[in-house]
From TrEMBL, chains A, B, C, D:
InterPro entries: ACOT13, HotDog_dom_sf, PAAI_dom, Thioestr_dom. SUPFAM superfamilies: Thioesterase/thiol ester dehydrase-isomerase. Keywords: Hydrolase. This is Thioesterase family protein.
């Protein structure tokens, strides 16, 4: 079960990431789902995101961006889920310190496709630092990239 | 000394990366210098690249993109430099297989600034695979991020 | 189905890694299983492998060693599996160039336990370079570490 | 200038790492220097550390171990250096939570040599998390490996 405070902060964060981060708007990044169990972030292919014009392949920087956003949102959802009695102010405070410490990206296959979906899961969960693994697939289920990111969460 | 073929391929690559990669145009990515000794890639801050509106900080995905581009260009320059008697067709062929296998980014400080410059150096050089370290600084010399990337070069 | 050549080379490799690598003997590293589908490598806890005497925890360097060995063996099994008509000499030749290019280790939990088992799976498979993800668990199924490694396979 | 408390804790840590970590004794790991500016850790080649008997090359797991130890000691020295008025008990407490979160190793050249020396420098310094870059050279100055590690320091 999700508490009202948990639900509220996740909605606020989804709204910020969806509508108020200029670079997400530039890419057309879209938070499809964001709840206590994780996140689904989508980018639709468009000509401006292409890195290789001969093969119409997504630029690796878009992949990196999507994976990083997924990682940050996933570890934050994990933090929100870790306690039932958060005050909303505490979580808003935590959000200001959320940041990527390091990230590894493994490019598995060329980024071909129409819709790219990123998902993640927390592999190490802490009060200060969490580590997340992320995946990027296209609309046909082709696995395009893996990510592993270490995030400051407090 | 740089041979005519080396000079020509590096100019072709700089032209492609500067003018014909849609995602580079979207970001305003600019190849300031590209020769046999390496590359200098610049992005000027603009509102669309912001990741954190409260603090006007560059999105981490822009940092990742810049570092990845620097890495690819640096290892390719290293390949070009590794032989004096390349045929231009061989190098053009190699360019089609140039790709990032994996990359680690270390975010050191918030991406504040007006002009972000990426540079790199090859740490492992091979005929098939090369590894590069990359750095991102702002116009005041503040060190914002490190990268380490493994690239397919043939 | 596994061909006779595939079976033979995997046995040879398992024998080398099990019996003829001095550092594996020093650690007591044991190849429990090695076939075309992958590998299971085990290290039994012993006092010499401890990194933290107050808590009797496995040294992180032992974890790194185990994950690296698992990664190398896993990508080599993948290479062996990729063709039915290898000649044994070709695979023996490939073995001489097998090597780790880079590796990331994520330490998830302290290395407590009696028996540590490493397993892996190939995430990017190539004729020259393969990428593998590795895991380390103790005898109770506690997940202690993840690895991601990029290997030269030819 | 180094305070008496700083000097004392660094000596204590060097003594523990040099003499009381069983796995360090097994490898013959030796802390040559440890002060507020960093660390120099040495391993002498011996037959038990070999990974490749045909070429007498150091096992990659020994390299990983050495780099990880260097990283931990370097970030701890950075923490010690960050304040002049530490109490020894605070630093001893911090030592108990010192741990590797993640590490990347780049293997640059085969580990040939007689004496392997690891050094490091902090690239991101924090009260909770620090990031370090490490290097391994042999006695001839050949650069064998790079490391990048993220450590919990509090």
């Amino acid at each position: 079960m999700t508490t009202a405070v948990q639900q509220k902060i996740l909605q606020q964060v989804a709204d910020i990431f969806d509508n108020h981060v200029p670079f997400h708007n530039l890419l057309g990044l879209d938070i499809k789902r964001y709840d206590i169990n994780g996140v689904e972030v989508v980018i639709n292919m468009k000509p401006e995101l292409i890195g290789n014009i001969h093969h119409n392949i997504l630029h690796g920087g878009v992949t990196a961006t999507l994976l990083d956003v997924v990682g940050g949102l996933t570890v934050f959802a994990g933090l929100v889920a870790s306690k039932d009695d958060w005050k909303i102010e505490e979580l808003q405070q935590r959000l200001t310190t959320l940041g990527t410490i390091d990230m590894r990206i493994d490019y598995l296959r060329p980024g071909r496709g129409e819709v790219f979906t990123g998902t993640g899961s927390v592999i190490r969960s802490g009060n200060r630092v969490s580590v997340c693994r992320m995946e990027l697939h296209n609309e046909q289920g082709t696995h395009i990239a893996f990510g592993t990111g270490t995030y400051m969460v407090g």
